[in-house]
What we know:
The protein is an alpha+beta fold. Among the domains are: 177-320, Alpha/alpha barrel (Glycosyltransferase), CATH 1.50.10; 441-510, Maltose phosphorylase, domain 3; 544-672, Galactose-binding domain-like (Jelly Rolls). It contains 14 helices and 35 strands. It has a six-stranded mixed sheet. It is globular, with a radius of gyration of 25 Å.
Amino acid sequence: MSLRRRIGRVLLVLTTLSGVVAGAPPATAATTPSLRFASPLSQALYGSPYAAALDNLLRVNALGYDSRYNKSGLLDPATGFFRAGGGYQQPWTRDASINSWNAGSQLAPALARNTLWAVVDKDSAGALRVQQDDQQWDQVVWLTAAWNHYLVTGDLAFLDNAYRTAKNTLAIRERAGTAGFNATYGLFTGASFFNDGIAGYPAPPADATESVSTGSMPWPGVASGMYLSTNAVYHAAYLNAANMAERLGQAQEATGYRTKAAALKTAINRHFWNAQTGLYNYQLLADGSQGAYQEGAGLAFALLFDIANPDQARSVISRARSMTWGMPDTFPHWNRYSDAQPGRHNAIVWPLVQGLWAKALARQGNQNLFASEVTRLAKLANNNSGFWEIYNGSTGVVDGGYQRLGDTVKFHWGSEPDQTWSATAYLDMVHTGLFGLRYGQQGLTFAPNLPAGWGDVTLQNLRYRGADLTITLRGAGTTIGSVKLDGQPSRAEIPATLQGAHTVEITLTGAAAGDRDGDGLGDAQDRCPDIGGGVAGCPSPSRLDAEDARNTGGVKTNVNHTGYSGRAFVDGLWAEGAASSFTLHRASAAPGTGSITLRYANGNSDSRTMTLSVDGRAVRQVSFPKISDSWDAWGTVTFDGVPVSGSDPVVTISYGSGDNGRINLDWLSYSGA
């Protein structure tokens, strides 16, 4: 973690907003869409984290106006901005850009606009520029977010100022001595896209003890090195500067930027493409040494920004390595890290990277891999009361990873809750991946990806400029069979001038046949196509691990005690409202009764009580006797006569009114009719 982020861990004293800006014009008003799957199981798996992500972005991380961030003079004092997350109060350039690009500009344009301007300042002559902070190597990602904001909103006044900001910022970076342009290679120098910690780099340029600094740019080899993701972001910046120039009637300037973009694309393919691995390398050091490592964000950008040709794109998708819980940041483990102690930026899962990779997979039409990445992030959110900063790539446990602090001890970092770009990564998976929203100057088009087994799905109350859209996807696949606008045959597009409430119905065909969860039941017939199991393709209720439950109210996975089974246990059942919910997949839908057994730890001085509910209805208060003074000791308790009905009843253990809670859970078992 950089010094900047450490300083950012301060008490949050600003008032949060609901995400709806009072008095904002219809074209810029925040909206809160709803996502509804016809399948209750899909709704639980994919719809629940969508609602949590909306809450994260529009309520938890939407702060009020703060004059400290109005160095550009362009913020609207009536509107706030998006902070970086629960542990980070600032907007920051990279976070502001990613969050606006992912979802902010679509869902809350006024907040996104302010967030983008909150990371812009002026030079001594009053010229706008992306702020010149200590992470200048990735400043130009702002241009991609700014162009996207214009495409979403059609805000020409914003675009005019954005283009002036873009021109000045690119000029600064081109002539910079640090994180500038290396004419020998035709590439930009400086750290990789978001790896501001040295844990994200192999040795060299790091060393085995990370002795110089925990940050990345103090290392000479990083500062003078060239990295895939950073150069891909510059390529996109030139293209988007050209797009801005063309829209504003600056044809000659647009040509210049496109020429630079083409040259940079050529240099990236010349120096980073590795024909032997079929992937792009991660790094190129100033002495010409190449690093044939995998960088998740860099590979995603190579696909998203059309740096890879079709053959290269197919090779990248087929050869890139994902971990159990998603596309990792950098890979494989550096020698100084391991499965037991993964680096904070190495062989570990940041949802930011997952989101970029899923966006790239959707653009390439790889539906099964897209579905797998969405499912992983959905599970991570469901299992851990929302969206955290970082997760262990092997276990899925909330984990900030390891990094040295300049001595001989590896420090285990925390993973911050309510991380904004983790939530917007999931929102983007739904919007531009599942529903295939594509923003253009003339309007909105659709290229959906609805995997087999997910069932029909509707996104309601999605605001696009002056239109309020309800979009329904039917069938499965990536091929559009038919489109209806307000019940009439139409093309898969919405003009930018459309006003008022409208419905869009898209029927899809051509879903890839497969068995994503590998349980022997095809996706189309599998009730749980992305979770393996033996009850109609769903997990057996005879053993359900608590780390796979839907955990809310602060409940999350952990491994800081011993004796648990599976990959983790859950803690956080310590305050009213905390809950763990287990879906029991039954062979019969008929009403019946059964027994619930729970394995738990109780290191308190007395018995603890919780509330047992089925399908949202409280059954009774239940007791968990003291087991030991140690939280490493586990025991079981069984509750008989629990009524259930339907194929997939949900049993919840919660800290309710009148309970005293404070237990850890390992697993639940159900037996009965």
